[in-house]
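Figure-free illustration: sequence to structure, shown twice.
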Amino acid sequence: MTLAAVVAALALLAQESSLDKARRIHADRPVFDGHNDLPWEIREKLAGDPAAVDFRQRQPQFHTDLERLKEGGVGAQFWSCYVAFDPDRSTAAIFIEQLLLIHRLVAAYPEQLEMAGSADEIEAIRKRGKLACLIGVEGGHAIDDSLANLRVLHQLGVRYMTLTHGGTLSWADSATDVPRHGGLTAFGEEVVREMNRLGMLVDLSHVSPDTMDDALRVTRAPVICSHSSARAIADHPRNVPDAQLKAIGAGGGVVMVNFFPGFVVPESARTLSDGLAHRFELKAQGMKGAELSQAMDAWNAGHPLARGNIDDVVAHIEHIAAIAGKAAVGLGSDYDGIPSVPAGLEDVAKYPAITARLLDRGWSEKEVRGLLGGNVLRALREAERVAREQRR
């Protein structure tokens, strides 16, 4: 055997050893993922009926099922309550429908799933061998400019709200729409303060850098980005610039890395940014509604995204860790909310592959466990502490 062959064999053994260690780490289900869109997929593909298929069995039409969640070591999940932003109508009622759908999904599998409302409940549920389920609302349009509606969402189990989605609101600028406020309005600041009082995490995915800065100035609790990556690596406005990464880390917050190739693969981010610019051009010409959607579908079909691989995601993890600290990085896959995934991260069973890569790069088991879920659990616990103090 040549020296090169020996080196290659030793490298393979080391890789296998890292994967074995990763599987041992994942055996007690430490993953707390920040964003999974299975509820919307159930609405779209199963007519909103969580019992239409048996999620205890593998469901290849989705990224997610209970068997693969266990394989991936997922012990807690923020299920996304998503409804597309429509500036011309209220979507609050549809958000409530989606909230109830999530509760029905959890109730359909009582031996595997249980709703959690706090960090302590998450840990207790995991000790019972179940997956702790929480809800994150994706987009402040859910509250219809009403703090009372925000309180209702919290009572229904919501533990984070993304301040915007794809469109700028009357009180907050989106990352992917024309800014109108230079960040948050006075009402937007009140939303952040009320979320602090409730113990609801402020989610800065999808918002503009100015909105991030305003939220960070106002908040008394750590913030999260539930499914965002690093703009320095993949230059798309949905990603977080280094200045904001540093500020989020300094405030005890967590940036949970998104797996979508358009946000993690540099060339795909450029393509996606070009598509966003094209969309702005069409809207400026007066195109909207179904006509705009059809035009963008045609553009996207002609501009496919490079898929990339797991190392593209790991690069974002390591960059965020370098800028904000290893205690400020987590995982927010966006599974079942993205049209493609990097090679090696095909579904929720693949989280151990990330752990193996990081172990190979010198991360300690403690640091890895923080990334997998400990960091966001700590941020949630701190948000709860701030809320208790404000209610005294």
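We now fold a second protein in the same way, so the two outputs can be compared directly.
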Amino acid sequence: MKEERYTPNQAAISRLVGEIKQAEVKPLILIHGGGSYGHPIAKDHQIKGGYREPSQLQGFAKTHQAMVTLNGMVLEALLQEDIPSMSLPPSAFLTTDRGRIRFLELRPILKLLELGVLPVLYGDAVLDSTLGFTILSGDQLAAHLAIKLNAGRIIMGIDVDGIYSRNPKTDPSAQLIPHLTLHELREVLKHLQEETVEEADVTGSMAGKIQELIPALKRGAQALIVNAEKPGNIYKALKREQVLGTTLQAV
């Protein structure tokens, strides 16, 4: 759980890295979230809302360092599987304005892909030209890169089987929706946006994740949302095999 601080699921990290290794898909960019590392600290110090007082500066720095620590675990697991990988801290190559990416240096990512090295990125505490600093979600980063790199697919691994008609964690009648076009997606968002503030974290609710994907979908990318907690799902998604989840595309 994100609320239980510094509780990495090492078994899940190792399994997912194993699925990436087995799939042997290139080119590929890996982006992970903050989990129990970045989220609690960012929330405590209200980093997403930007700089308001000097006491937040320590929280800003600690949020980034927590993500570096978690990223180190992911990178170590990749290297143990002999997957050439390199971490790229988003705070070092991009800035935002009012929480939206305004500058991103693509050249390091492109060079790693050219060399056959897996770029490993993550949600991060970043500098913001208006707010001073903020939280950049991995969801926004993934969609932005998909547009800039003309990516054909975005695979999003979450803790439920995909997009539901309602929140499946609170509503037993919720139904999994296997496929959504942009038009259908906007209708579903009306229901998802009814989630309470308590159900959302510092990087947004499911509705927020979907909204981040919309610009990439408009540019022709396809998104697949699957349950990363179920063994084999990420492998199947990477290999384009049939897998339980929700496919999002323009039409």
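Summary for the second example: The chain has two domains: 1-136, 151-251.
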